[in-house]
Structures are given as structure tokens and as C-alpha cells.
Design a protein that fits this description.
The chain is an alpha/beta fold. Helix content is 27%, strand content 27%. Helix 2 runs parallel beside helix 7 (259-274).
């Protein structure tokens, strides 16, 4: 599938007065869908809506949303916005050799502790995964958050970085969870060296099972310039990167360069996940990749949601 970069989408949305989400991802293999209780087959869509200042837009109803499925308008059958509903979160931590440089791994550990502090003991379920050249399940998804405290203390960075492959494998683990809101939160320096899958392929897989990918790249000031230069080079080409992957799945990408930024940004990711709307639309019966386009009838709204799903 041909993919073009759509980072100017938010700017365009502000100009025309309607929020829009970029929709470009490679179609993956079919995956299980999380569904609402309904007499028809439905598709759920986790959706973040923020205003021009980055604040959550609250109080929206089905009539405020316009959902297009392969260009066809689909009515919103149901909408949920309960901030207390449980979360299923897979925390995926980069333990490859590049994380040993400077204070990256220390910042990642701080982010991990901050994430746990925002989750609810006995309600939310959390899994801890690490990766280098392969994915490692350190703690399966569970609601006993106390057992995850200091979960990264005994691990030291080593080896190559199969970042995209690890995200794909983690997304598959989450596909069977029943929580209305689920997500992958990746703690990394943002550099992939050995994945077989591309960002576009992984974003297609995660989108198809409605798993937004939130990426927190811990970058001390000395490493930030080099990483920013790499992403800028990608932005001038047709090569998709980690920022694209996050956007296409309805997640977010953020750099942090200090411990304070790391803690506050990590906490903000959980808050953003809790504030999401969850929409339900009738699923198409045709067995094909269906592109989704979500808009909100609200001035300057910025909408993030998954890029598509598999019909049938």
C-alpha cells in the first residue's frame, strides 16, 4: 500500500474547522476485534479528541462524530467516555544495547514507575515486556500492580533493537484482552536496527485490532539532536518511522530529555488513554481492509484514532 506522510493534517483541520485523523497503514493479517454487546457485528474505535491547546474535548455525543468507512458514512451506534473503565496496558521497554548509553535506561525506569503510579490497583491490567533482538515477557497482563514495582531493576541493556517486531508481537498479545481501552506504551530511544517488519506493517496490525501505540523516547540532550536529525531525514522521504506508527494507530509519540519531563509525560499518556472516547459502528461484511476516517464537528479539534480494520 502506498503511504504518504500526513503530519500537516492537524494544520489543515484547524483551517477548515473540523478535526481529522490521518489514515495510512499497510493492511495486516486479520485479527480479532473487540466488540460491544450488539445484535449486529460492530467495530470499536478508541478516539482521542483535543482542542488546539491540547486539552481534551469533553461531552461529545454520537451526533458530534462523522465516521467514514472506505468513504461511506457510518452512524455511531454507541459511544463510551467513562474515565473509570479498566485499562489493558502493555508496557514495552527497550533493553537493547543502545539504551546503555548515558542516562537512557535510568529515564526509562523513571517512566515505568510513573506509569504504574497512574494505574489503578486491582482494576487496570498491566503487562511488562522488554525487547532487544527478540520480545521477552517479564510479567503477563495482571491487575496485581504491586508485583510490578521495580520490575526493571534487574535488567541490563544488551544486543540489537527489533523495535517494530516487538511492537507487533505485543499487539497480538493484547488482541485477546476484553477491556474497552487498551494500548501499548513503548519506552525506547527510538532507534530500530534489526526488525523484519516495517513501521507501516506494524501500524496496520495494531490498527486492525484497535491497539494504539504510545511511544515515549527517552533522549538525554546529547542524543536528542542526532535522533531529531534522523527523524527529519525520514520526514523528507517515503520511509515511515516510529512517529508515523504512533499516529496511524491513534497513539502519540513524545521525546523527553530530562527526568522531570519523562515522569510528567508518562503520566500524561495514561491520562490521555483514560480520556478517550470509544465509538462503535456497524462492521462491513466484505472481507477486506477497510480505511477509517474519523472527524468531529468541533472547531480546531484534533482527532486521533486507528486507521482501519478488517471487514467480514
Amino acid at each position: 500500500m502506498m503511504c504518504t506522510r500526513l503530519h500537516s493534517m492537524a494544520t489543515l483541520a484547524a483551517v477548515i474547522g473540523i478535526g481529522a485523523v490521518s489514515l495510512c497503514a499497510q493492511a495486516p493479517q486479520p485479527a480479532a476485534e473487540t466488540t460491544f454487546r450488539s445484535s449486529v457485528d460492530v467495530v470499536t474505535i478508541q478516539t482521542s479528541v483535543r482542542d488546539a491547546r491540547g486539552r481534551t474535548v469533553k461531552g461529545l455525543t454520537p451526533a458530534d462524530f462523522e465516521v467514514r468507512d472506505n468513504g461511506e458514512v457510518r452512524p455511531v451506534l454507541e459511544i463510551r467516555s467513562d474515565t473509570r473503565s479498566p485499562l489493558s496496558v502493555a508496557i514495552l521497554v527497550d533493553m537493547s544495547g543502545s539504551m546503555a548509553v548515558g542516562s537512557k535506561i535510568a529515564m526509562a525506569r523513571q517512566a515505568f514507575d510513573s506509569l504504574l503510579g497512574q494505574l489503578h490497583e486491582g482494576e487496570d491490567e498491566v503487562g511488562l515486556f522488554t525487547f532487544d533482538a527478540a520480545l521477552h515477557e517479564r510479567r503477563g497482563l495482571m491487575s496485581d500492580l504491586a508485583s510490578l514495582r521495580n520490575g526493571l531493576a534487574d535488567f541490563e541493556p544488551f544486543g540489537n533493537t527489533s523495535l517494530y517486531d516487538a511492537i507487533a508481537a505485543t499487539a497480538r498479545r493484547l488482541s485477546e484482552r476484553t477491556a474497552t481501552r487498551k494500548a501499548i506504551i513503548v519506552l525506547t530511544d527510538g532507534l530500530d536496527t534489526s526488525s523484519e517488519m516495517s513501521a507501516a506493517q506494524v501500524s496496520g496490525l495494531a490498527s486492525s485490532i484497535d491497539v494504539p501505540v504510545f511511544v515515549l523516547a527517552t533522549m538525554p540532550p546529547g542524543d536528542l539532536r542526532a535522533a531529531a536529525g534522523m527523524i527529519e531525514r525520514h520526514s523528507r522521504s517515503d520511509v515511515a518511522d516510529l512517529r508515523d506508527l504512533a499516529e496511524w494507530t491513534g497513539g502519540r509519540f513524545a521525546f523527553t530529555k530530562t527526568f522531570v519531563e519523562t515522569v510528567t509525560t508518562a503520566a500524561g499518556l495514561v491520562d490521555e488513554l483514560r480520556q478517550q472516547y470509544v465509538l462503535a459502528i456497524e462492521a462491513a461484511s466484505s472481507r477486506e481492509w477497510r480505511r477509517l476516517d474519523i472527524r468531529v464537528k468541533h472547531p480546531s479539534a484534533v482527532v486521533k484514532a486507528r486507521s482501519g480494520y478488517y471487514g467480514g
